[in-house]
Design goal:
The chain has 17 helices and no strands. The protein is elongated and about 90 Å long. InterPro entries: ArlJ-like, T2SS_GspF_dom. It comes from Caldiarchaeum subterraneum.
């Protein structure tokens, strides 16, 4: 292969690793302008890098080179240690996310239940010393509680390891379809919060459609705003969820196919065939979603296209960082190092280790997404049952409350919290907010089912005798 300094210089002109590219440009300036030797430039660059693992790798390389040690053996051993450490960190991240989800469930559920209980009592039994203004409830329920959920998403984002590049297509799909969702909200949701709009033309039609849907489900008045919100979140997140499922499956298949291809390439190279001939021969095999890219690469090699240009075309067609990194290193190994079997062996092991790390990360984090589901469903059911219980309790005391008013006040913020909890579940399980689009849709649908079930059964569960 080539020395790490030369590799850094090649990375300086690549967008694959933007942070390392910035550091590599500094090292290149120190050599070309400052007159430093490459080893000293690498040492100075490493001291300014925030990553401890990368700093230790480069400083150790410089030290080994100065002392006359086996640089190749050092780099291989250090890389193995980094991967072993990375796998250990996945378990630590899983434990950390578990604690975070427990905190999310406690804060979301307990704070919401305390707030709703206080508000029910203060409205049902108003007194001089126990009252919560509606404005204060709206501020807390519609802003502070969803804001806390958004805060947990941010904390999860900074606590999880990430790759430099991620697939932005699901987010672009969300942005493209967002105007339609907000148009639906303006026509079907807002009229139930600004009731004067229901008297206007066209708004009366849209609001009556939601009311008819409420009648069809057999629910009493007050559930209209919650039903409209559920439909809004489904329309908002469903296109992004479909896009994430499609593109996520594609990226996973490409990466898995690339891993299998690199192992086959290593074994084929050991027979003495040239790397280019091995790639052309292996293009006949099936490697999942990677096969179509491999066939294009094989044709470009047959046309005599430069390897650097082949990689650039591949990078434009793919969107995952792992497959871009794998092909980038493969091209470098052939273009500079001649594609030695030993180099391909290291590359194949590198790809297999990366795939194993991703598998362990998914297996560790996936069970944690059940916590937001349980939290949101329990919150919806408890709120509906609590309102029905208070209604029957006050009926026994010859008092009355407007059930529709309480349902209209309580359930919409709970639906909002449930949808955001879906984003939290996706962020925890897949390390990306786009992974939560699917869970937000499912959470909204389950919220609608929970509203129907709890609304239909609450009165029967807490029917109190009046005589």
């Amino acid at each position: 292969g080539i020395p790490p300094y030369k590799s850094l210089i090649r990375l300086a002109n690549s967008q694959l690793m933007p942070n390392i590219a910035k550091a590599a440009k500094v090292a290149e300036l120190n050599v070309t302008v400052g007159g430093l030797d490459p080893v000293t430039a690498v040492e100075r660059m490493a001291k300014g890098v925030p990553s401890k693992e990368y700093k230790d790798l480069m400083l150790g390389y410089a030290s080994t080179l100065r002392s006359g040690g086996d640089v190749v053996h050092y780099l291989i051993r250090k890389t193995e240690q980094i991967f072993t450490s990375r796998m250990g960190k996945m378990r630590i991240v899983g434990e950390r996310m578990g604690m975070m989800m427990e905190g999310f469930a406690a804060v979301t559920m307990m704070l919401s239940l305390v707030l709703f209980t206080i508000y029910i009592v203060s409205r049902a039994l108003p007194s001089e010393f126990l009252i919560m203004p509606s404005e204060q409830f709206v501020l807390i329920a519609y802003l502070i509680l969803p804001g806390l959920s958004a805060l947990f998403i941010y904390i999860a984002d900074i606590s999880q390891p990430k790759y430099p590049v991620s697939d932005s297509r699901p987010m672009k799909t969300l942005l493209l379809t967002m105007p339609f969702a907000f148009a639906f909200a303006a026509l079907f949701v807002i009229p139930f919060f600004i009731t004067e709009l229901q008297a206007l033309p066209f708004f009366d039609t849209t609001s009556n459609m939601i009311k008819q849907l409420r009648v069809m489900t057999g629910l009493e008045m007050g559930y209209e705003s919650s039903i409209a919100l559920v439909l809004f979140f489904i329309i908002l997140f469903l296109p992004g969820a479909i896009a994430y499922q499609k593109y996520g499956t594609e990226n996973f298949s490409v990466m898995h196919g690339l891993t299998l291809f690199l192992r086959d390439l290593t074994e084929a190279r050991k027979t003495g065939l040239s790397p280019e001939r091995c790639i052309v021969d292996l293009a006949r095999n099936s490697y999942g979603a990677f096969s179509k890219h491999l066939k294009i690469i094989a044709r470009q090699i047959g046309w005599g296209m430069p390897l650097r240009k082949i990689y650039e075309d591949f990078a434009k067609r793919t969107h995952g960082w792992l497959e871009k990194a794998g092909v980038f290193i493969l091209v470098d190994a052939i273009d500079v190092g001649g594609g030695a079997p030993e180099t391909f062996e290291v590359l194949a092991s590198f790809s297999e280790d990366l795939e194993e790390i991703e598998r362990q990360k998914r297996a560790t984090l996936k069970p944690l997404m059940l916590i937001p589901y349980i939290t949101a469903l329990m919150l919806i059911i408890v709120v509906v049952v609590l309102v029905a219980f208070m209604k029957n309790l006050l009926t026994l005391a010859r008092l009355s409350i407007s059930t529709a008013e309480f349902i209209h006040f309580f359930l919409p913020p709970v639906i909002i919290i449930a949808a955001i909890s879906g984003l939290v579940a996706g962020k925890i399980s897949s390390s990306t907010v786009a992974g939560g689009f699917k869970h937000a849709v499912i959470m909204s649908l389950l919220g609608l089912v929970a509203i129907y079930a709890s609304g239909a059964l609450a009165v029967q569960m807490f029917q109190l005798p009046t005589a």
